[in-house]
Amino acid sequence: GKKSLRQKAVDELKHYYHGFHLLWIDTKVAARMVWRLLHGQVLTRRERRRLLRTCADLFRLVPFLVFVIVPFMEFLLPVFLKLFPEMLPSTFETESKKEEKQKKKLNAKLELAKFLRETIAEMAKRNKADTG
Fold first, then answer.
1. Which of 2, 56, 103, 108 is least buried, going by the fewest C-beta atoms within 10 A?
2. Cα(54)–Cα(58) distance, integer angstroms
């Protein structure tokens, strides 16, 4: 059914709480990775990607905090998210946004695969015509 205004506000607060909590956990893990890097250890590709994502999230947090701290500015947040969809840290994304991103990536990969397949078929035709 339809949610009350109070329930929507509680859901939003929970969403932000969980987002900040996940960001805190990512920050702690990233700090350990930086410590390992400073002591000469090598990170795996997965760890490197996580470290980069966490650093990017921390840089994205600065403009996001302005919306949270300044009174009544959170009403402008949806407008800015429409203009700058990558402004939110990754820990604040909803499941629907994550699925939408995955669908876009998958469609791009499918288009690339289709292009490559057509290119290879065209090259095969040329080679066949040249040798035949």
1. 2
2. 6
67, 74 in Cβ contact below 8 A?
yes
Q: How many CB atoms lie within 10 A of CB 64?
A: 19
Residue 40: how many CA atoms within 13 Å on its side-chain side? 0
> Residue 35's pLDDT is what?
96
Question: pTM score > 0.85 for this model?
Answer: no
pLDDT digits (tens, 9 = 90+) for 4-54: 888 888 888 898 899 889 999 999 999 999 999 999 999 999 999 999 999
Is the pLDDT assigned to residue 85 strictly greater than 80? no
**Spatial separation of the C-alpha atoms in residues 64 and 78, rounded to whole Å:** 11
| 124/21 Cα distance (integer angstroms) | 54
84: left (phi over 0), alpha (psi -120 to 50) or beta: beta
